[in-house]
Amino acid sequence: MINVNCLNNIASVGLDLFSSDYNTNASFEEAQAVLVRSAKMHDMELSDDLLAIARAGAGVNNIPLDKCAESGVVVFNTPGANANAVKEHVIMAMLIASRDIIGAVKWVDDNKDDADIAKSTEKAKKAFAGREILGKKLGVIGLGAIGQLVANAAISLGMEVYGYDPYLSVNAAWNLSSKVKHIVNVEDIYRECDYITIHVPALDSTKGMINKAAFDIMKKGTVIINCARDILVDEPAILDAIKSGKVSRYVTDFPNTTIVGKEGVIVLPHLGASTEEAEDNCAIMAVKELRNYIENGNIINSVNYPACDCGICSTAGRVAICHKNVPDIISKITSVFGETGVNIEEMANKSRGDYAYSLIDIASSASEDVVSKLSSIEGVIKVRVIK
């Protein structure tokens, strides 16, 4: 029986994919697999039995990735599962930034007791007049699963779209509309675009990337949309940019005391991926990733270990090894099989930064002696017999 702990509520459509071999009511301390959404895990003690954590969503800043890697715990996320929900959220953000829908609705609510509200509306509505997005220039920074959907949707709405992503994948490029103008210098987006939306991960290199230097070269009245992570925007600097008129609206999905209630800022309560469909999609993908790893040893969509997919094992045995990415460790691993008379029939070794992963199909099931000898190799973190 595989023990699974859910640190947050996970959609039942995903949990239903677990077979009877899984206990989804386990505690965190006894779990081999964990499903999580927003729960903070940095201060949680990882047990030796823990094999994998799956985040039902894209961002993983609530999970201690290095600590997990050091313990041989593979961390998965679900890229693209909530992409459509966030795309629609971004389009909505552009529209409410362009036309004062929020102010208009508030005016109607405030005047609900006016017996002549229809006549009053005709006088008041000019205060809420806005502009159309048709023909305007949109800059999309980051063309991953969400960014490419936003770019394509904006093209369909008649916008002129500029896309920037120095790490654009082949798959993303294939999915991107040919009408999107590929920009190689992000400053061109700052200079040219009426609207700018950010879709990059929160890293040390991206923290505060939308800053005073960026605002200084923007058009007057630029709209900034941030449904990615709050730390990507230098918030004190954007408040100054709003005061100066360089930025007309800042729409963010991340409330905090710096920006809530400030002039020119529309703050949404982190609703980007909050749809029934997105939560279902994330749960389904996360459970499938966990099952594939636990049952087959395959790693797909990990954020701290390399991708490694060898399909379903067709040999007598399969061993999975999490280890350091250091010289000579592969020869030491294969030597153990040779010394114990176990023939290696297929082998995959992948690395990612300081860590690596080996999946080895063998002609017989691995004995406890083989596992013990593999585990004693310097640099080996975790050894698991899949079959």
Any chance you could write out the topology, listing elements then pairs?
Elements lengths: L1 E5 L5 H4 L6 E2 L9 E4 L15 E4 L9 H6 L3 E3 L6 H16 L2 H10 L6 H8 L12 E5 L3 H12 L3 E5 L5 H6 L5 E3 L2 H7 L2 E4 L13 H5 L5 E5 L8 H10 L2 E6 L12 E3 L8 H21 L20 E8 L4 H11 L4 E9 L2 E8 L5 H8 L4 E6 L2
Parallel strand pairs: 1-2, 1-3, 3-4, 4-5, 6-7, 6-9, 7-8, 9-10, 10-11, 11-12
Antiparallel strand pairs: 13-15, 13-16, 14-15
Helix pairs in contact: 3-6
Shape: elongated
The residue-averaged pLDDT reads 96
* Number of separate strands: 16
Beta-strand percent range: 15-25%
H/E element sequence: EHEEEHEHHHEHEHEHEHEHEEHEHEEHE
DSSP helix count?
A: 13
Low-confidence stretches: none
Distance between the first and last residues' Cα: 15 Å
The largest pleated sheet is described as: 7 strands, parallel
Alpha-carbon Rg, integer = 25 Å
Percentage of residues in helical conformation:
25-40%
Assembly state (oligomeric): single chain
**Strand order, biggest sheet?**
8-7-6-9-10-11-12
Secondary-structure-derived class:
alpha/beta
Name some characteristics of this structure:
387 residues; alpha/beta; seven-stranded parallel sheet; 13 helices
Structural notes for this entry:
The protein is α/β, with parallel strands linked by helices and about 375 residues long. It is about 30% helix and about 20% strand. It has 13 helices and 16 strands. It has helices spanning about 10-15, 65-70, 85-100, 100-110, 115-125, 145-155, 170-175, 185-190, 210-215, 235-245, 275-295, 330-340, 370-375, and strands at about 1-5, 20-25, 35, 50-55, 75, 135-140, 160-165, 180-185, 195-200, 220-225, 245-250, 265, 315-325, 345-350, 355-360, 380-385. The strands form three sheets. A seven-stranded parallel β-sheet has the order 8-7-6-9-10-11-12, with helices on both faces. Strand 1, helix 1 and strand 2 form a beta-alpha-beta unit. Helix 3 (about 85-100) crosses helix 6. The longest helix is centred in the C-terminal third of the chain and has 21 residues, at about 275-295. The radius of gyration is 25 Å and the shape is elongated. The chain starts with a strand and ends with a strand. The mean pLDDT is about 95.
